[in-house]
Amino acid sequence: MELLCNAPAHASVPDRYVFPPEKRAALQLDGVDGPDDGVTLPVVDLHRAALSGDDGLRRRVAEEIVRAGKEFGFFQVVNHGVGEDVVRGFRDAAAEFFAMPVEEKMPYCSDDQSKPFRLASSTSYDKSETRYWRDYLKLQCHPVSDELVRHWPMEPTSFRPRLAEFSEAAHELAQTLLSLVAEGLGLRADFFAGDLSGGETQMNVNYYPPCPDPSLTLGLLPHCDRHLLTVLSQGDVAGLQARYNGRWLLVRPVPGAFVINFGHQMEIVTNGALASVEHRAITNSAVARMSVATLIMPKMECRIGPAPEMVDDETNPAKFREFVFSEFMEAYNTAAASREDVLDSFRIHRD
Fold first, then answer.
1. For residue 178, which of 164, 163, 198 has the smallest C-alpha distance?
2. CA torsion sign, 51 to 56 to 60 to 62?
3. Mean pLDDT of 233-237
4. Cross-strand bridge partners of residue 117
5. Which of 109, 218, 252, 329 counts the highest number of beta carbons within 10 A?
6. Which residues of 181-190 are buried (b: 16+ CB within 10 A; e: fewer)?
7. pLDDT tens digits, 65-74
8. Residues 6 or more apart from 293 whose CB is under 8 A from it?
9. Cβ atoms of residues 65 and 180 within 8 Å
10. Where are its TM segments located (predicted)?
C-alpha cells in the first residue's frame, strides 16, 4: 500500500492525484490562511455552568446550538470541558505514529473495513482512479475495553493511553451535545440516548501532508456523514470546507475548539430540521494537517425514522421512511457517500 506519509517530498503532484478541472476545489489555501469570504461558523460557548445547574443558561445554550445547526449544519464549541492536555496528548501521539518508519506501520495497513484498527490512504469511497491526498487511521475507539485496546498499536508507547483518554472525553462531550440538541428541539433530554447513539464509536484520524500544488488535488471528497454526530479536532491548520448557500465555506480554526456537525441520522430523526451538510477537505503547500473525527453511531439493529414529535401530518409530514441502521450503511456504501443518492433511498416520495 502506498502511503503519502512515508513518501519523499514531491516536486510536483503525481498524475494519480490530479483531479479533472471540474472536480478541483475552487478555493485553495496557501499555508494556514485562506481568502476571507466574510462568513464564519458560529462559535458556541458551552459554559460549564450551563451543564451544572443553571437551567436558564443551559436553555439558551441549547437554543443557540439548534439555531447554528439549522443555518449551517456545522458549528464550533469552546469551554467544552475537554482538557487541552487531553487533546494535545492524543494529537501528538497520532503524529508520532504517522512519522514512524514505514516498516513499523505496514502491519496495520489494510483496506478491510471490518478491522477495528487500520491504516490506509485516499478513501474507500473513491470510485475513480484518481487518489485523494490523504492517509488515515480508521478505528473503533469506544467503549474502551482490554479487547479493543489490544488492536491499537503499542508504538509509540503513548498511543494507547492517550487514545483511551481522548476517546472517553470526546464521547462524553458528544453525549452532552446530544442532550442539548434534544432540549433545543423540545424533545426530552435523553432522546438520543440508548440505541440511537449506542453503537461502537468510530474515529478517523486524517493526515494530509503538504502538497506541491493544491490547485490540482483534494484531500477528501465532498460527502455527508452517515452517522448521528461528529466531534472534530482540526488543530490549528485550516482545510475543512462546509457547503453553505451553494458555495464552500472555509472552517477557520478556533483555539481550543471542536467542530461539530450532524450526520444523516440526525437529519432523518429530526425530519429535516437539522440537516447533514456536505463537506470536504482541501490541501495546502506549506504544512501537514491532521484532523481527528469522533463519530457517534447508532447500533446496527437500531430502528430509525422521524421522531413523532418532529412530524405533523398536515404541515410537516414525515420525509423519510423507517429503516434499520444496517440497511442505511449498505445504501451509503453503494451510493459512494453521495448525499442525494443515499437519502433518496429513504425519502418518502409524494405526488
1. 198
2. positive
3. 95
4. 139
5. 218
6. bbbbbebeee
7. 999 999 999 9
8. 203, 204, 205, 206, 230, 231, 232, 233
9. yes
10. none
SS (H, E, C) the chain: CCCHHHCCCCCCCCHHHCCCHHHCCCCCCECCECCCCCCCCCEEECCHHHHCCCHHHHHHHHHHHHHHHHHHCEEEEECCCCCHHHHHHHHHHHHHHHHCCHHHHHHHECCCCCCCEEEEECCCCCCCCCCCCCEEEEEEEECCCHHHHCCCCCCCCCHHHHHHHHHHHHHHHHHHHHHHHHHHCCCCCCCCCHHHCCCCEEEEEEEECCCCCHHHCCCEEEECCCCCEEEEECCCCCCEEEEECCEEEECCCCCCCEEEEECHHHHHHCCCCCCCCCEEECCCCCCCEEEEEEEECCCCCCEECCCHHHCECCCECCCECCEEHHHHHHHHHHCCCCHHHHHHCCECCCC
- The answer to whether 94 and 290 have CB atoms below 8 angstroms apart is yes
Residue with cell 430540521: 273
Map out the domains of the chain with their CATH numbers. 35-344 (2.60.120.330)
pTM: 0.93
Q: Which cell numbers in the block locate residue 55?
A: 437551567
C-beta atoms surrounding 96 within 10 Å = 15
Q: How many CB atoms lie within 10 A of CB 248?
A: 19
Retrieve residue 349's grid coordinates.
416520495
17: amino acid identity, one letter: Y
Residue-wise pLDDT for 263-300, tens only, equals: 999 999 999 999 999 999 999 999 999 999 999 999 99
Kindly list the distances between the CA atom of residue 307 and the CA atoms of 222, 266, 317, in Å, as whole numbers in the listed order: 28, 10, 11
| 320 bridge partner residues | 347
Question: How far, in Å, CA of 314 to CA of 349, rounded?
Answer: 16
Question: Would you state the cell numbers that stand for residue 329, as one nine-digit string?
Answer: 450503511
Residues in the chain: 351
One-letter amino acid identity for 258?
A: F
Pairing of strands 43-45, 74-78: parallel
